[in-house]
Amino acid sequence: MLGHCATAVGISPIPFYLLGGLAFGHGGLFPLGASEEFIEVGAEIGVVLLLLTLGLEYTAQELIDGLRRQAPTGALDLTLNALPGVAAAFLLGWEPLAALVLGGVTAISSSGIIAKVLADLGRIGNRETPVVLSVLVLEDLAMAVYLPILTALLAHQTLAQGSVTLLVALGALVFVLVLALRYGRQVSRLVHNPDADPNSEILLLRLMGLALLVAGAAQQVRVSAAVGAFLVGIAVSGPVAEGAREVLTPLRDLFAAVFFVFFGLQTEPAEIPGVFLPALLLALAGVATKVFTGWWAARKAGIGTMGRYRAGAALVARGEFSIVIAGLAVVAGIEPELGPFAACYVLIMAILGPVAARVVEPVVRRTTRRLRRKTVTSPSGG
Prior knowledge:
Elements: H1 2-9, H2 14-24, H3 36-56, H4 60-91, H5 96-107, H6 111-120, H7 129-154, H8 159-191, H9 200-220, H10 225-235, H11 238-265, H12 272-300, H13 305-314, H14 320-332, H15 338-377
Helix pairs in contact: 1-2, 2-11, 2-15, 3-9, 3-10, 3-11, 4-5, 4-7, 4-12, 5-7, 5-14, 6-15, 7-8, 8-10, 9-10, 9-11, 12-13, 12-15, 13-15, 14-15
């Protein structure tokens, strides 16, 4: 019913799933305590599948090429969008670790929401879309480094332990990229050989089993399970990756919905009103910084004015990754207000993102016409 409502009004279902979790969680309208353990396991699988399918979207070569072309843009994007979150955390009196978490929440755009919005609006073939995707790829690469660091800090590891965790994560990333570049076809055929076994059920079981195995192993060595799943997705390429996306998408959507509901279940609805105003102000700052990032990246790529604004508006949405980052901190219990604040922020941004993408063209055109009229009618205009 929640997903149907989201489709009816034409926005991402993520805010509706969060609201559903708020309604049925602790302090909600109808608390459902009996299902929490089952939903928690489903939520962990949801994170793994989200990152696995994201990794399947890119080949190792695309990741490296995107890093080379758009590295300055990525650095600007992450810095410009993380700073408001860090500043807000310190203004609220939170500890530095909570500030690091909130900086990650505000920095990372939602690939899932953005991909859906671009497809719904028919902009996949637009000139600015590769720029948007390059920025998202760089954010994903940064996340592969950020998550192990954050996981180590949340686990209160020593500097030596945290350094080992980061080195393991970076080593795994380099190893997978080299493996995918040199032996991508062989790795893909080990996962599934369409000629020998065209059964998609086997592909689904093998790939999901491998993702859960690697994610579990990553977690055992203090590296994020999400990063492990992401690396599995990168290692698989070609027709196997295309077939994997087809069979995994329904399963991902199911468990991702469970994950968002679970995050809502963990949040006390009574705490939302107290954080709404600062979350709204932070959201407005996030809209401005993402629009500028997209505009600057598109301008650098030689794209026209309207395409620049479309690129900026497309990057506004926050969603699954912001909740993943906040969820790690909520489980660690570092800041009581972080969960409600992040939920409120993502609710606002998940609504503003699709809306901004839809209205950016008429708003820019109207503003441009008004400016032209003022120029023509002013005395200096002749």
